[in-house]
Here is the input.
Amino acid sequence: MKKLKLYLLTACVFSISMAVQSQSSISMGPGYADDIYYKMFEGVVGVADRAEWDLGFYTSSESYSIITNGGAGIELYVYPYGDTSAWMSIDTNGLAASWPVLFNGEDSWQNGAFNRNSTGHPDYGWGVYSDITQNVVGDSLFVIKLMDGSWKKLWIERKLTSDNKYIFRYADLDNSYEKEKTLKNDDYIGTNFSYFDFQSGSFFDREPNTEDWDILFTKYQAMIPQGVPFPVVGVLNNVGVKANRFHPVTLDFNAWYNQPLDVSRTVVGYNWKWFDMGGMQWHLEDSLLFFIQALDANIYKLYFTYYAGTSSGDIEFMEELVSMVDVDEISADDGKLQLSPNPAQEFVTVIWNTDLGGSAIMHVFDLSGKEVLYRELQINEKAIKQIRLDVSGLHKGMYVISIISAKRVINGKLLIE
Here is the structure.
């Protein structure tokens, strides 16, 4: 299990209810022209023109994910009438009318449009992995509609895994202007994706380094309630960032631990707003909060306060640092608090079996995230590692007890009955 990172320096020895707030804003520009890369509590770390790319290739040598710029109008179709032997004789009968469009999955950055027909290893949707060569060899042809309305046929010929290289071929539908490209993905290690633009025929880097951002304000394709993919404006999590959603709750709600943090990239997504067709204006969803575990391992609360729409692409939101403690990611050697009795009524004995390294602070929080008890502990490591706590003034319900020192964080859940 991953070791918890602790940021417990002098005055920073606080936990779940920290009440450090910031009113923040970003601008995607008129027509939502820009992608905005954002780091929690630090601000915008990158701005990129969304219309500058067509394809994205996941940079890891162990990944075979290829995405399309669906938010800018790219449409991808798999050729239904044959395999790669049909490259010179593609039949476009039914194209865009009956061929299903492929779009990036909402759950994961690894689930790109080219991977949507994957059946699992060794089939990655556009090609099949060979145990002999350890490469993926393309077995499907694709037709792609670009932003300017033009069409190309496309064949991802192979990925050379050991060299982290893609080789692919494209041409006009009448076989003219055929090109073959080789992408050296190791040139882009440090970012999630390398990018390709058909118009210039070039590869390029447009992202900040993966470790430098938490969320992305962008336009992407989502499956809307009508059951069809549709371009939406929203927020996507970076790889490694987790989040959860609470609705309806009051804005002072801080009990992020009431449900698991989700690794899906669309937990925040797009439906924190809705459009009033009668009044022809955007509205924010009431009583909606998100909690985000950023790459720094801290937990941040986020809720939206303003959405301008397409005229300016301006978005305003409140972010609040609510926890430097993730109860679910404390490693086993940090241990857990032993609470006796549990459930308790008047007194509970709190016992720990790990070295706290001197002084520590004990916090007790209710499920709203409100701190209800606080104790400064001067620990004699030669003594019994326990404290008897008077809980007779607490209401019935569940509580989180957290002991924090410069060396350790130990947590436990207490039921008062």
Summary: The chain has no helices and 30 strands.
